[in-house]
Amino acid sequence: MFSRQSFSRVLVAAIAIGSSLTPVLAMAQTVAKPAATPTPKPTPKPKPKAQGALGPQSGDRHLAFKGNGSDADSLWPVKTAAPLPGSIMPAKRVLAYYGNPLSKRMGILGEFETNEMLAKLVADAAEWTRLDPAHPVQPALHLIAMVANPDPGPSGKYRTRMDSALIEKVYGWAKSKNALLFVDLQVGQSTLQQELPWIEKFLMRPDVHLGIDPEFSMKASGAVPGRRIGTYDAADINYAIRFLANLVDKHKLPPKILVVHRFTPKGVTNARNVKLDPKVQVVMHMDGFGAPWLKRDTYYRDIKREPVQFTGWKQFTKAKNDKPPTTREAILRLWPAPLYIQVQ
Fold it and tell me: What is the spatial distance between Cα 4 and Cα 9, in angstroms, rounded to a whole number?
């Protein structure tokens, strides 16, 4: 049992300890008190991405134009080997007048008297160059050198080869204006393997190039040309590329241009399997007709979304085909901007 004196000493000691702890406790309480949290600033909302569209109400928001939210924008330009010396694209834009002198219905090449047609070509080329001086125009004539037929004909192939004299005549027209010549094949129920050797004597020339038209390639269906739309596979296009590349090697030619017409999804199958060669510049050409929005829809669906190398655009001169016609300025707004313009 504590004595009163002992208890007093204990009490004094306890009071002394308590007094010495008071500042420490006060400090601990001060430290433990949470600091005031500043009011966070509101996070700025990201700007909404451009919303593109297709169809007749698309206007300037069309997905064929650049910057309207299409993932396909980033696919262009296609990454390929640097162009070889003598390559025409991408430094220049080709403007080609299309058709056959034997028919006014097949295009501008036969619709007007020769001198008038050539004068139009020169003036048209100058206007395109004025609008886009970064890509001066290389004029061209695009001749349907093999025409698909609705009957089998003597060959049984539903196609007719043009006489060499006609091809030479159109070649002469092209030479008179420093223009290129394209020879275009509508093979009917024949094949490129059978028909390209026939036209080789012209393709051996440095200023003659090739067009192939899937619409009239009927080997897959066996149908009559004009009653159904034909098709080419990447394997067919690769054959044409190899054929032209071999000519370039054999005859020491500048690179060739291969134009492939297209206006339906099945017009070219397996486009991703096309194997490019720097000796051949491949143009996937939007060959459709209609109002500007409809042609842009086709361009977006069949050309922009399935990149190969370069692109083309068809302009019709008759209102029944293009009503109203797409303006040059609107064509140049497309992404990618076509480097081959064909006038029919």
Answer: 9
Task: Give the whole-angstrom CA distance, residue 124 versus residue 112.
Answer: 15
Give the pLDDT confidence of 49-108 residue by residue, as tens digits. 558 999 999 999 999 999 999 999 999 999 999 999 999 999 999 999 999 999 999 999
Digit-coded pLDDT (tens) for 157-188: 999 999 999 999 999 999 999 999 999 999 99
41, two tokens: 């600033």
Q: Are 199 and 164 in contact (CB under 8 A)?
A: no
Location of structure tokens 């309207």: 68
Phi (first) and psi of residue 233, to 5 degrees: -100, 165
Q: How many CA within 13 A on the CB side of residue 330?
A: 17
Q: Distance (Å, rounded) from C-alpha 74 to C-alpha 104?
A: 41
Structure tokens at 105: 């219905």
- The C-alpha atoms of residue 118 and residue 62 are separated, in whole angstroms, by 34
Say which residues have a Cβ less than 8 Å from residue 103's Cβ, sequence separation at least 6.
110
Question: Which range is least confidently modeled, 19-33, 145-159, 297-311?
Answer: 19-33
Q: ω into residue 77 within 30 of 0, thus cis?
A: yes
Q: Which alpha helices (H) appear in the chain, and where do they start and end?
A: 4-32, 108-111, 114-131, 164-176, 192-203, 234-251, 292-298, 328-333
| Residue type (1 letter), 91 | A
Q: Which residues on adjacent β-strands are paired with residue 184? A: 144, 211
Q: What is the pTM of this model?
A: 0.85
Bond prior to 46 in cis (omega within 30° of 0): no
The Cα–Cα gap between 121 and 315 comes to 13
